[in-house]
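new request in #modeling-help
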Amino acid sequence: MATSFAEQPSGQTGSGVDEVHILWISEGMSCDGDTVSITAGTLPAIEEVVLGLVPGLPKVHLHNKVLDPSLGGEEFLTPFRAAVRGELDAPYVLVIEGSIPNEKINGEGYWTSFGNDDVTGEPLTLNWWIDHLAPGAWGVVAVGTCAAYGGIHAMAGNPTGCMGLADYLGWDFRSAGGLPIVNIPGCPVQPDNFMETLTWLLYQAAGLAPVIPLDEQLRPQWLFGKTVHEGCDRAGYYEQADFAKDYNSPKCLVKIGCWGPVVNCNVTKRGWMDGIGGCPNVGGICIGCTMPGFPDKFMPFMDEPPGATASGSMIAMYGPLIRKLRSITNKTMNKEPKWRHNRDALTTGYDPRWRA
Amino acid sequence: MATTRERIKPESRNVVDMSWDPVTRIVGNLGIYTKIDFDNREVIDCKSTSSIFRGYSVFMKGKDPRDAGFITSRICGICGDNHTVCSIYAQNMAYGIRTPPLGEWIMNLGEAAEYMFDHTIFQDNLIFVDFCEQMVKDTNPGLLDKANKTDAPRAEIHGYKTIGDIMRAFNPFEGEIYKEALHFSRVTREMFCLMEGRHVHPSTMYPGGVGTVATPQLFTDYLVRLLRCLDFVKRSVPLNDDVFDFFYEQLPGYEKVGLRRTLLGCWGAFNNPDHVDYKYENMNHWGNEMFVTPGVVVDGELVTHDLVDINLGIRILLGSSYYEDWVNEETFVEKDPLGNPIDKRHPWNQTTLPKPQKRDLEGGNYSWVMSPRWYDTRTGDHLALDTGGGPLARLWATALANKVDIGYVKATGSSVQINLPRSAQLPEMQLEWKIPQWSNTIERDRARIYFVAYAAGCALHFVEQALNLVRQGQTKVFQDFEVPDEAIGCGFHEAVRGVLSHHLVIRNKKIANYHPYPPTPWNGSPTDSYGTPGPYEDSVMGLQLFEENDRESFRGIDIMRTVRSFDPCLPCGVHMYLGKGKTLKRVHSPMLGMGGST
């Protein structure tokens, strides 16, 4: 069944499937923080998807270790094993969480595993599962920055040689559904960014949506097309060269470590949960956690980004002037027009026969 | 269904290897490998395993110490903020600064919301699936029949007529409480995000304070959400009590499930800004002013509540792990700032020297985990403390220490009282957690739901304090600082699932040594150098099975309930380094031991 679906040309609409399995493996170099994060999502909520409350979506069978009702072990692994044998009863989306270790550098050892070989009893590596599940998947999703690009565990000096899923499978990888890997970066992933992307993919699987639009780094374009700064409610301070000198200030944080102007992320717009929380909009420097260059290119986090020194000093030439002019206008705007009074005269300029 | 492999032993033909790998409904990668004697319905051996290596302590060396709070958050995907906060405590000590009072209240408010969120999602959406109708029907159908016929004693408060009704309400994704708990977990995470910016890796937390914009609106937004949570909290406690009491009543002997000697550690939580100056010399004083009192409880006795004693007693034993000893390596800290000698096996002096090798189960090394232990100066024992999943140790230590009294929560010497104000549906209510007879599976789980109420009570106090400061115009939340050339620091906190410490050494303004010890290495450690098994193993070995299924359809519910009662959080356990790109060649599946070193 999986294959018959997979044979459909990519992006075909109008003829979709009724059921989809989500095979989620969080055994990459991860903290399981993306799984935990998505339980905070409400747009839509995971239980709404699982219970079939979103019209048009296929029936979803979620197989995620943290949320799975089973006791674990073989109970939990059954659909994964069936998918490897090509015997799963419906197409599946493979979700990988955590970065992919380099298993070529450690002989017969391994860095991370997921269950055991049912014949030999030896541990099965994450890489083995990816090799066996990715090609047959209708879609492949890398959730979180670790799976997308390597993230914190791929920091300089790391022992595992780990990398993102596209580094492992190849950036030109195509799933059985004809899709590239879909990266949803973030450390952790913003809950609704994941849920919304998943929903698009499910609509697409149902034949109700065109191919998901991705950018060169394989991110959904509508989520990662703008910078943090472009969505930040503190950007007005930047424009006026009015910078926070320490974290007590509600002003622009670029002089004390914020990388927002050069980071692709929508969290300043979307907030963290239904508009609540976020990063620089609520006093947290942007450390670039959605980016392929995270974390090394943003460290040390609490210092001014080198580029901000240049742009900041250019703005400093005219920003204070703008601020001054605006404060003058602002003062004017804070005064009511003079005809609003309680004297015994009407001074509004009232004229019932006024003509131009 | 567990994986089964027959073991033919001459003395018993019915001892079977059974394993659960991966264990579901926990965070991280855990495998449980047991030997079960089905004739006598007893677990005769248990090993816990994990199989993932990342390497935090190693890639943090040489980095700017101010980055430590951001990096260490990524150790854990459910309570990362506990690491950030603990790192900030350790850095504040090293930099010689204190967080301004409002910053401290904001941190406390964030952490209180974290406890409320995390304990609830774990209890109601993960743990309680083991107690739900669908599960009990499968593992103990006879018990479910009784549950359907047993009136819930506290139905008047929570609204569920029978125990069976409660069990149905916990059915995954469909049950009423399951869904309500997910909603609750979101509201409490919104409260968290108001204070710490983002869940699970916070954005607004810095050494020296917070960047959170402290307006009246911030605290109003928090307070109204908190108040709307109170009905759920007030119903959850009696509802949990009804289920747990039912298990004791209907399954005589169930108190022995997961039972181990009472050896509990709590490192304290919620600093009091009127007292905490982060000076090591004053640590005993400000530790005792925390709103969760630190302490070590041995056989029901509070052995110490002094954070200095707690710090001095920490020992990292090599045990059965794949490391070379560091006795001949550099000693970073000879004496603490009070002049007490610091042991070579203390985290400040640990140098991680991984030595990959073949596993040797027969008296050799079999784990990447070291064994954290606490040295009891009275007896010379290296105690394998556990955290009771967090809340059991916190409530026990706080109750015995008898120090906390802020109205909403009060220690009495033998109990902890929680006083919650009137809410939309339920009147003012006092909940009282009394020190239990046992440190077992049920009591670990019961304490968790009481601690949700405890955290809610604390949050009410904190938000009042914060609003008072804001109304007085005292809105400073951050203290600027310079990173010193050389310094040491330590932070003590309670991660959601138990003790958390960060030990930091700075040289030339860089991290020279950094060792976090989260709860899971304590709970999940393997047999140590003195032959003492770790708490998971200890509590499952000798467990009598209450599951009604025979061997063919055995699911292992009592074992899984016991393991989950500790709230295993494996990413915390397994952030250790493997060294030079060499992994151990492991040749078969039961990889014993689990993460624990850094």
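bot summary: The radius of gyration of chain B is 23 Å.
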